[in-house]
Amino acid sequence: MKELKFLLAYVFMTSSSYFFAKNGLLYSSPIFFMALRYAISAAILIPFVRKIQINRDILILSLLTTTSTIFWSVGLLYVSPAQSSVLSYSMPLFSLPLAFLIVREKPTKYELTGIGVGFAGVVVYGIPLMGGFTMLGMILTIINAFFWASFTVYYRKMRDADPIAINSSQFLIGSGIMLLLSFPGFYFTFSTAFLIDLLWMATFGGAFSFLAWNYLIKVSSVNRVTVLAFSVP
């Protein structure tokens, strides 16, 4: 029951976030937009932790989540929200071998079947969208999927840690990294629409969705959760 609650919350928040993120790029360069998103997400979570954690695992997780976010946001410049969703859900193809190599999780035959059926469904769903793909957008978004799979497996590796503590730290570190990287191609125009996009992406599309994903990975195997996540696209 707990798993179902986190899944429903995650599906709702994430399925909407592609559109808010794409719209936000009308007003801000992608890396700067995501730096602000991470900074606000960190500010939301930090009051609920005793101290910011900085260690090797947090640094690795931060690099993985930040890299995934950068490739996803820049890729959104070249693909639509629907296309980004379809391409991003190549993620289970990466998470399956990574879960075996990093946390020694062997997929069951039911999980393998679920991943196969789910991915086939995403491909079928994506066929009508194929004409709008750009090669650069496709490559950037698939790279994002690899790093999304990587930090998902790393969440599982850190399953004994408090999700609020590790996410507040990785958001804080990630915001600093992206702020430093945001100057090439920088643009920014403030508007009410931008503020709405940013607030959604920092709350439901940031702090809360990362927490829901982290809790799902904490209570269940990587392969099981990635099968369930096919509900998003």
Can you walk through the features of this model?
- The protein is an all-alpha fold.
- It is 75% helix and 0% strand.
- The chain contains 10 helices and no strands.
- The chain has helices at 2-24, 30-45, 56-75, 81-88, 91-103, 109-126, 135-157, 163-181, 192-219, 222-228.
- α1 (2-24) crosses α4 and α2 packs across α9.
- The longest helix is centred in the last third of the chain and has 28 residues, at 192-219.
- It is globular.
- The chain starts with a helix and ends in a 5-residue tail after the last helix.
- 46% of the residues are buried.
- The mean pLDDT is 85.
Identify the overall geometry: globular
Computed structural class: mainly alpha
The biggest beta sheet is recorded as: none
Terminal residue distance = 22 Å
Helix content: over 70%
Total count of helical runs of at least 4 residues = 10
Q: Mean pLDDT, nearest integer? A: 85
| Computed Rg | 17 Å
Low-confidence stretches: none
User: Strand portion, in percent?
Assistant: under 5%
- In sequence order, what are the helices and strands, one letter per element? HHHHHHHHHH
Q: How many strands appear in the DSSP assignment?
A: 0
Oligomeric status: single chain
